[in-house]
Structure formats: C-alpha cells, structure tokens
Design goal:
The protein has helices spanning 40-48, 70-76, 93-100, 112-118, 135-146, 165-182, 193-199, 217-222, 224-230; strands at residues 2-11, 14-24, 29-33, 53-60, 63-64, 78-81, 153-157, 185-190, 202-207, 210-216. It is an alpha/beta fold. It has a single domain, classed as Rossmann fold. The strands form two sheets. It has a six-stranded mixed sheet with strand order 6-7-8-3-9-10, sandwiched between helices. The chain has a four-stranded antiparallel sheet with strand order 2-1-4-5, with helices on one face. Bound molecules: adenosine-5'-triphosphate (ATP). Adenosine-5'-triphosphate binds next to strand 2 and helix 1. Belongs to the ABC transporter superfamily.
C-alpha cells in the first residue's frame, strides 16, 4: 500500500532525512523507533506533505504522490495524528470526532459512537469539552478521532508521550483491535518500545535521519546492541 524509496527531506537548506526506504502493505502495522531528533516527525510530515521539502518517491497504492497536497493525500486515506493534538477546545469529545468524519471523501466513515465504544477511556468523556480534557485525554481523543474518516493508513506520531503506563497498555490494545477490525494500516513513530511492539509486527530504527535497521521484533531482540546504540539516551 505504501512504498517509500530514497526519500530525502529538508527544512530550508538543512537535510534531515537521507535516502529513507520504508514500506507497509495493506493493513500492515510497522513501527519507526528513534531517539529525540532522529527524524521521526519529519518522516511522517513528509509522507503527508505537511512541512518539509522532499525528494524521492512516495507511492500509495502504486501511485506516485509527488507534489500532491496534504488534503488530497487525506482523501486517499492517509491520516496523520501529529504530536500537537489539535483538539477543538470549544467542541465536545463527541463533536470533535463527528467533525472529523467530513474527511471521509467517499470512503466509509465510522460512527462517532462506535469510536467511543472502541476507546473505553473516551466513552465517559463524551460530553466533555476539548478544552477541559487533560493532556493524556486529549491524546486519546486525537487517536480515536483519526479513525472517524475511515483511514486506510494511519500515521501516528508518539501517541504515548507523557501518558501513564496503565493508559499506554489500554491504548495499545485498543489501537491494535480497531486496526484489525477496520483493516487500517499503521506507521507508528515511537520511543516507547513496549507500546510499539504491542501495536506492530515489525520495525524500523531511525538515527540522524537514516534507517539503520529494518526487521522483525525477534531479530531486534537478538541484536541487543541495537537498543543501546540507537535508542538509549
Ligand atoms: N520546522 C523545522 N525547521 C528546522 N528544523 C527542524 C524543524 N522541525 C524539526 N527540525 C529538525 O529536524 C531534526 C529531526 O526532528 P524531528 O522532529 O523529525 O525528530 P523526532 O525524531 O520526531 O524527534 P522528537 O521525538 O523530539 O519529536 C531535528 O534536528 C530538528 O531540530
């Protein structure tokens, strides 16, 4: 479904990503792990054409995205949940989800209440205004809301940042379940290894803008030095 080849990304004259190769099949879930500043957010923004200048090839369903603007990519079924959650503070949780359905562009949108059922911690907050939510609750809402427009490939940028461990566990279960049921693929950028493992079947490691490892979790575990070299702070 997604094929990325030789992707370079730049902010001004500064090159951030170097010859990135990455793919995800229909419904497949992959993780991208790396330290702060490794280039994870830049990668997701590049896939969405939401900031950096890029060179190289990004294909979705075999189609070269090239200069295609973000909103068109969203219409094809790509959905980015950025690190800053962009919750509407004057709308309720239910309304925040409902308004996101307009991005469905011909695909089958999900019922907002169906999403609330799938994310059990959001359900009791249904009538709460976005501005009244804690940071963690806003993160949950941003993730749940991303399913509203019926995405085909979700790009999640560090959804666990700042969340309590018990919430992280529940979020992993719920994301994996909804992706399975709705056949949604995932590119998950993370620093939380436990969460990334729980949500995906294989991973990429990124370091100073380069992919330095790609493989399954078993292979990652067998190479103990990878964690030390590329993820330890
Ligand atoms: N808008 C920008 N303009 C210039 N440089 C940027 C910009 N955004 C990010 N960078 C730089 O690009 C590099 C990669 O940053 P990026 O945010 O992609 O990393 P990250 O892996 O997502 O890290 P974090 O976990 O801290 O968000 C960093 O050196 C950062 O300073």
């Amino acid at each position: 479904m997604l094929e990325v080849a030789h992707l370079d990304a730049f902010y001004g004259d500064g090159q951030i990503l170097h010859a990135i190769a990455l793919d995800a099949a229909e419904g497949e879930r992959v993780a991208v792990l790396g330290r702060n500043g490794a280039g994870k957010s830049t990668l997701l923004k590049s896939l969405m054409n939401a900031g950096p200048r890029v060179a190289g090839a990004i294909r979705f369903d075999g189609r070269l995205l090239a200069e295609m603007p973000s909103y068109r990519r969203a219409q094809l079924g790509l959905a980015l949940v950025p690190e800053d959650r962009r919750i509407y503070s004057h709308l309720t949780v239910l309304e925040n989800i409902a308004i996101a359905r307009y991005g469905a562009a011909g695909r089958k949108a999900m019922e907002p209440r169906q999403i609330l059922e799938r994310f059990s911690m959001l359900k009791p907050l249904e009538e709460r205004y976005g501005g009244q939510l804690s940071g963690g609750q806003q993160q949950l809402l941003a993730v749940g809301r991303a399913f509203a427009a019926g995405p085909r490939l979700l790009l999640l940028d560090e959804p666990t940042e700042g969340l309590a461990p018990v919430i992280v566990e529940q979020m992993a279960r719920e994301i994996a379940a909804i992706c399975d049921e709705e056949k949604v693929g995932l590119v998950l950028c993370e620093q939380n290894i436990w969460f990334a493992r729980a949500c995906t079947s294989r991973l990429y490691l990124i370091d100073t803008g380069r992919i330095v490892f790609s493989g399954g979790w078993d292979e990652f575990d067998r190479n103990a030095d990878l964690k030390q070299r590329y993820l330890a702070v």
